[in-house]
Amino acid sequence: MPSDNQQSCPPDPTRRKFLLTTGSSVAASLAATYVPAFANNAAVESAAASSGAGSNIEGAVPITLRINGKDHELRIDPRTTLLDCIRETVALTGTKKGCDHGQCGACTVHVNGKRVLSCLNLALMHDGHEITTIEGLGTPDALHPMQKAFLDCDGYQCGYCTSGQIMSAVALLKEPCGPDDVSVKELMSGNICRCGAYANIVAAIQQVRKNA
Amino acid sequence: MHTFEFIRPADPAAAIAAAAQSKTAQQGADVRFMGGGTTLIDLMKLNVETPARVLDINRLPLDKIELTPDGGLKIGATLRNSDLAYDLRVQRDYPVLSQAILQGASAQIRNMATVAGNLLQRTRCVYFRDAAMPCNKREPGTGCPAITGHNRTLAILGASEHCIATNPSDMCVALAALEATIHIQGPKGPHAIPFGDFHLLPGNTPHRETVLEPGDLITHVTLPPPIGGSKQIYLKLRDRASYEFALASAAVVLTIANGKIARARIALGGVGTRPWRSPEAEAALTGRPVNDATFGQAAEAALRGAKPQSENAFKIELAKRCLTHALRTATAS
Hints:
CATH class of the domain at 232-332 in chain B: Alpha Beta
Oligomer: heterodimer
Strand order of the largest sheet of chain A: 2-1-5-3-4
Strand content of chain B: 15-25%
CATH topology of the domain at 232-332 in chain B: Enolase-like, domain 1
Number of strands of chain B: 12
């Protein structure tokens, strides 16, 4: 019955919220079963849930990270990359982990307005910096022109590289770049798309540049 | 990744004092300066680098680019590669350097990587990067599996029976041709090193890649005054058109007078165990007429000492054609 189905659904049944919810409960149940091994994971979860409350990670150090205009007071293991901090500690999962070795560009974010690879940075290097992720670019109701252009031009297939592509593309708008497609391709070469949506990605970028 | 202590030194003196505690400044250093992180964090994730202390030098005042009294350029150690490549003075007076940097890595990595970090960029040899494999560079005395293994991308110039790893930098090839000088502050005070003396051949100590000693902090690089009317080019050949390391590259800086080459500075990338300045090619060019015969003789001279590995004999011909084409292109303009 339609009405029964509606009642049994959560109020906002997005895939992202579903995964976040089940991910937390799985981590919590594992932590309950294997307390010593998963103690750190549980601590990370609690930090994520409260956006940076104190944790008991051994050797953790305090840091304030400014992401999308909001300060996050965190305690993190010094080894935490900016990428892992954004995704796991602050729970902004729009930024993706692809290769984790600076070869794919999926983790691209902006630091002080410039695009960088968050997997090859330590979070501790960025206190006081202005960090922007895909979540800080636009909202579903008010898309950034580049987000809209990717939709218009079908600039993705599986979508995993898309947030990195868009963060790179937005930064490119302020970089020295020739008007032609070849110049765009050269400056976008650090963002790999294994679905092969390159032609449509270039079209999206050129659409925004043309309308700028 | 191993645990480490993260320290942000207040000034260069504090950075030097902290780094001087390290038992080495070479492979296996227990104290490391952190620049952009593009090499070091990568290798720390692979457990190839396991420093106990990481010194964040990104906020030291070493990121300026300015004119020297003699009209050359002083380039700060923590200046980002993109800022160097897009600097108008570099684009106008040292285009070979701008071209080399912009043909390396990706826009994101160029925004992160520092000048000093690029000087210290590590080889991409797959055996060096795999901590489960033997490697004389990573663990002296364990052997070199690359010599009998996958070596298509590795060195044909400057290798030894202990190591055939290629230096991967593009920027360094241009700096070699521009005769840059590397400036260091360390426990023994400041000193300046000609570019050609900075990187070491592997010999029987491939774990020693540079002349750096514990506590040595690269503060800046200087370029000599620009040579008016010089023709410069960086040509890079690789397996894909962008975001790939060189199989062969050439940096060319020429001056021409009366139809002859008056002065030549030549360096090759992608083929040597260090950025490969070629005095042999320079001698074959100097005083000679500007034509294909001269270029061919220079290419032959540059590669005369080349020794191919089992998978990369093609690199000898590729490097010759790369240099020939670079010379032809540079002199055609």
